[in-house]
Design a protein that fits this description.
The protein has 2 domains: 61 residues; 225 residues, f41 fragment of flagellin, N-terminal domain, CATH 1.20.1330.10. 61% of the residues lie in helices and 4% in strands. The protein has a two-stranded antiparallel ribbon. A hairpin with a 2-residue loop joins strand 1 and strand 2. The longest helix is centred in the last third of the chain and has 66 residues. It is rod-shaped, with a radius of gyration of 45 Å.
Length: 373
């Protein structure tokens, strides 16, 4: 068997050429992928360190999406709270406008307030995001996780803004409103409170020291209803209605003497003034309750605002942290394109020189053959 034997010079040139081709191929791959470390065998330490950083960045990137969704849920809750506050402010406007308006306007108050309360209840029911409603129950909880650590999270507690918990008395206790139709009664516009009765009594006594029967017949808001024949007929918002609860003068009674200096306290003007005074007392108390309700609503909404600020801070931190982790991984794996381009030119030159040297070595052996010609 004949074996072709290569001279040492040719072997050296072939080895050099193979090394140059290997480096040339690696440099060409780095330029095409942009990675200096693409596989574990390129550099095991850098490869697995970069993989660890990239994995952590991906974990936080997925949490970033969860934080974004949490911010959206809180934004819905806060905007809904503002809308509820606007409806309550409209209730105040209804009361303010009616007490200085006509009898028919005062009779419409109950209907207007019920419609607004009904819209509040519907708004609370609609304020959900991805199946979570933070306004219809205090038992609702939204948990937003910030990382793979179990304790790294924020639990957002829901706030009950339904009618039964939303409207508050002046002392901060709930009015326990069961339905929108009962809003006027809950605010004290259809029956006098004890303080209003006391104020009405003082007004009536000042106008009529000797009449005990008529002073209890000057209270309340006429919400489309009329009571008759009762000593406790408190319906002062219907100034045009005829009262039948007095036990004073009747048509058969003799007409009391007229005293210009001391007008008759049972005259229509006196009754209307007393009723207007009671109307103002009830309106003031209803407005005070609505003001207390708005304050409670703002306190509940403030907790959502604080949670939103926390999520926004965590979102900004997560963005910066993910960028830092990604940059760290890139520093370990990315190739320097300028350096690789320069290396490519050098390797091309070395490859050409190696080919030329191999050609010259082969020609040296061929020249020996020429000696025998």
């Amino acid at each position: 068997m004949v074996v072709a034997t290569l001279s040492p010079s040719i072997r050296a040139n072939l080895l050099t050429l193979n090394q140059v081709e290997s480096l040339y191929s690696r440099t060409q791959k780095r330029l095409s992928t942009g990675l200096a470390v693409a596989e574990p065998w390129d550099d095991p330490v850098k490869f697995f360190s970069a993989r660890s950083l990239s994995t952590r960045a991906q974990n936080f990137l997925s949490r970033k999406d969860e934080i974004d969704q949490g911010i959206s849920s809180l934004t819905v809750a806060i905007n809904s709270s503002k809308a509820i506050e606007s409806l309550i402010v409209q209730m105040k406007g209804v009361i303010e406008g009616a007490r200085s308006g006509t009898e028919s306007q005062r009779q419409q108050v109950g209907t207007d307030l019920s419609r607004l309360a009904d819209q509040i209840q519907k708004l609370v029911g609609d304020a959900s995001y991805r199946g979570i409603n933070l306004l219809n129950s205090s038992g609702t909880k939204l948990v937003v996780r910030f990382s793979d650590r179990a304790e790294s999270k924020l639990a957002i507690q829901g706030r009950d803004m339904s009618l039964g918990s939303l409207f508050l008395d002046t002392d901060g206790t709930s009015l326990n409103l069961s339905s929108a139709a009962g809003i006027a009664a809950a605010l004290g516009l259809d029956s006098p409170s004890s303080s209003q009765k006391s104020g009405a009594d003082q007004i009536a006594k000042a106008a009529n020291q000797g009449s005990d029967a008529g002073q209890d017949d000057r209270d309340g808001w006429a919400l489309g209803q009329t009571k008759t024949g009762s000593k406790d007929d408190h319906r002062g918002w219907a100034l045009g209605h005829t009262k039948h609860g007095h036990h004073g003068h009747t048509p058969s009674d003799p007409t009391p003497p007229s005293d210009p200096g001391n007008p008759d306290p049972t005259s229509p003007g006196s009754n209307e003034e007393d009723e207007l005074a009671v109307i103002n007392l009830q309106a003031d108390e209803a407005l005070a309750r609505l003001d207390r309700t708005i304050a409670g609503l703002q306190a509940k909404s403030a907790s959502f605002t604080h949670d939103l600020s926390i999520l926004q801070v965590r979102l900004d931190f997560t963005k910066d942290y993910v960028n830092t982790l990604s940059e760290g991984a890139d520093k370990l794996t990315l190739a320097d394109l300028n350096e690789e381009s320069a290396r490519m030119l050098v390797l091309q030159t070395r490859r050409d020189l190696a080919m030329q040297a191999l050609s010259m070595a082969a020609q040296a052996q061929h020249s020996i053959l020429d000696l025998f010609r």
